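Q: What does the predicted 3D structure of BAHD acyltransferase DCR-like look like?
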Amino acid sequence: MAPEKEEEEIMRVKITGKCRVKPNKKLGRRECQLVTFDLPYIAFQYNQKLMVYKGDEYEDRVGKLKDGLGVVLEDFYQLAGKLAKDEDWVFRVEYDDDMEGVEVLEAKAEWIGVEDLTVEEGTSTLKELIPSNGILNSEGHHRPLLSVQLTKLKDGLAMGLAFNHAILDGTSTWHFMSSWAQICSGLPSISLLPFLDRTKVRNTKVKFQLSPPDQNGSSTDDAKPVYQPLRERVFKFSESGIDKIKSEINSNIPSGGSKPFSTFQSLAVHIWRHVTQARQLKPEDYTVFTFFADCRKRVDPPMPESYFGNLIQAIFTVTAAGLLSMNPPEFGASMIQKAIETHDAKAIEERNKQFESAPKVYQFKDAGVNCVAVGSSPRFPVYEVDFGWGKPETVRSGINNKFDGMVYLYPGKSGGRSIDVEISLEAGAMERLEKDKEFVLEVN
């Protein structure tokens, strides 16, 4: 009977209004070709984020957010456009003044308190607070490239966001969010303009033909089996916990050229090893670690931090579960470190040429068996997004692009070097991970 009750509660999130927001100024027609860095994400789902703020004055906040959105879209107008393609299946993002713009939904869920959304355990209520569940980026030719849902809570505001991932990566997402917050906070203009010409980093026209199943809107049904068996949990690693993990792994740096391990490398191998153990893999089973590297400073010539689009590539490393578990943490950390260091401009160029010679449609579920895949970054300034009423109480991801082993990293709300680790795992593995004292020992 519990699932029925849960579904009943979910349906109490009620949409009360819909509108579209466009740039305040007339901009005319603008087009920008999608490039090789963008195309692998066409068949992924929209990238979802949830930001929760305390306080009343819902109507005033919604009005301020809409007004600020109209201003910030003057510079980030691509988000108010749509996907398009020519007769050769070369994709682009285009904007014109007669397009509808960004979708803004207003909703009420006054039975939910801010505290209910800051719990460590994943909650199905999150699904109803973020738009575009199960929607593929390829549907951006007829859906808004950005949807925002503003839900009135018992004691606050939930801002659910769904970005078309073919249009932008995490760095660009938080550049946009920070800029929007600057306008709402009273600044006359944003502090850093987006660099919008993607062809400066790559100008190869890629004919990228999608098969019909990737465009027919069936993604919602296809996604359900992926979500149902999973549990989601946020593990909060304190600054002292992060320092302990990092110092222990750096107390015995392997010979053979390894440098001191970074915070990311130290935490990454900690997660990889303990998730692998929780899965109870056989020693001979392979396990994969993958993450998305920001290539802005890796490409030649380097691109500015303000480059707007996708400028990331997935980096993979693989080993046998037995080797990962039986060797000290430095073994896996060295593999991750080497993968990062060797992904230079030459490797990026080779990856691009390989993709362009035989474009492949990737799906978010293609990471591989026994995979730990890391998205987002603790460097993103998610808790600095202040629209004029304080910092968010929590930042979470939605249900899209989730599979067994998906990990999102966020800075901890307490600041410093604290990090929140949001993990999706098969239920049995999650239960074992929660009981793993060596994993949770460093967690607040």
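A (community wiki): The structure tokens above were generated from the sequence. Residues 174 and 382 are 7 Å apart (CA to CA). DSSP finds twelve helices and 15 strands in the chain.
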